[in-house]
Amino acid sequence: MRVAVLGCGYVGLELCRQLTAAGHEVVGVRRSEEGLAAVESAGGSAVRADVTDPDSLTAVPDCDALVFAASSGGRGADAARRVYVEGLQMVIDHFGTRDSSPDRLVYTSSTGVYGDHGGDWVDETTPLDPTTEKTRVLAEAERVALEVAADAGIDGTVARFAGLYGPDRYRLERYLNGPVTDGYLNMVHRDDAAGTVAFLLTEDLAREEAVLVVDDEPVEKWVFADWLADECGVEQPPKRTKDERLADGDLSEAARRRIQTSKRCSNERLRELGYEFVHPTFRSGYHPAIESYRTGH
Question: Are strands 219-220 and 184-185 parallel, antiparallel or unpaired?
Answer without folding.
Answer: antiparallel
